[in-house]
Amino acid sequence: MKVFPNLKSTTDKKNILKILTDINKGVNSSQRSMSFKLGISAGLANSYIKRCVSKGWVKIKSVPKRRYMYYLTPKGFLEKSKLTAEYLSSSFELYRNMRNECHQILLDCKKKKIKKIYLSGQSELTEVLILTAKELDVAFEGLFIFGSNKKDFFGVEVCNYLPIEKIDKIILCDMKSSFKALAYLKNSLNKDKIIVPKILNI
Question: Which of 44, 82, 114, 160 is a Cys-bridge partner for 109, taking CB atoms 3.0 to 4.6 Å apart?
């Protein structure tokens, strides 16, 4: 049996899970506050609530001052548990794949005796690369984060400009604006110096 078969995207599933989790905790937020937490419009938050009600996962009770109280039904609790398991499973799989690819990338760099390795962008991928590098005794020269005021990230020096002359290889780590970040690197560096992990799907 598929979890939330009518939900079209991973984002839908995550938002539904957040709503069900809040309701289960007794956090009876308004649709406006829910939309703020999820970073979506009030109208979209309303559509999620309606979907939860129509599926029998949530019940609504009117209270004074034109407010509503939301309650998770036993069916809703079961669906929340299923969705949580699905989300954790996919997260573990993503982490495992990320870890394996990071290990392979850094192992290749080590075998080729590439010394001046930089990272580009701050994300979960950056963190995994730094942790994996410590295991393989690989050192990064720096982490490029455009316009950043940070001095370091997990022990790696942060630079807010691209040190073009110093780079032997740079690994793209930006998971939110991958295409834009890659275009910037290509405009600044020889493409042979850029490593794009397959997990970014670009």
Answer: 114
Nearest to 121 by CA among 59, 168, 171, 76: 171
> What residue segments make up the domains of the chain, in order of their start?
10-72, 93-200
Q: What is the Cα–Cα distance from 133 to 148, expressed in whole angstroms?
A: 23
| Band of pLDDT at residue 64, cut at 50, 70 and 90 | low
φ and ψ at residue 164, rounded to 5 degrees: -50, -45
Q: How many residues does the chain have?
A: 202
Per residue in 76-126, pLDDT (tens digit) is 889 888 888 887 777 788 888 899 999 999 999 999 999 999 999 998 899
**Domain 93-200 carries which CATH code?**
3.40.50.720
User: How far is it, in rounded angstroms, from Cα 170 to Cα 189?
Assistant: 9
Thinking of the domain 10-72, which architecture would CATH place it in? Orthogonal Bundle (1.10)
